[in-house]
């Protein structure tokens, strides 16, 4: 781990990846300590497809926070980066390193908790569809922070279990619209494999038809 320079929309982000944040139960490094390829895919896609001017944005399971920082770069008026408590110091470091302290907040958010942080205009997520126990809690959180017109965008690497995780959200009443599928290998930005990635728009119960 260490410091990475990642270019998005002709801007160089400084991203601190951590090597000293561990799960207290398993002893393994927390997966949110570094930038996942899905976060790179989402950030690049956002820079050419979404309008963030004047919008309030939240990133769920932000990890290192690259998509949320990209939203700030692209004109969001407020960005909230959320994750579990051990990852917050790393998020704060990345906010400060990129000069976004005035518009980007960092806050703990445990999915399914009663914490109210919204509503928001845009919700961002990358590589969050892997733990079946978290899908109901994620759905509960989305219900609380979305309002009519909220856009929810999620990028994920397509794994054998991804379809099951998406079905669990759809069983809660959410709709999934695949808007981008890519296998592009981006060597410049450190993507280490050419697996398939997809970007989905998630339609909440209160939301109108997809914007794409």
Automatic annotation (TrEMBL):
Transmembrane spans: none
InterPro entries attached to this UniProt entry: Methyltransf_16, SAM-dependent_MTases_sf
Alphabetical list of Pfam families matching this protein: Methyltransf_16 (PF10294)
Superkingdom, taxonomy of origin: Eukaryota
Signal sequence extent: none
Protein name stated in the entry: Nicotinamide N-methyltransferase-like protein
Organism: Corchorus olitorius
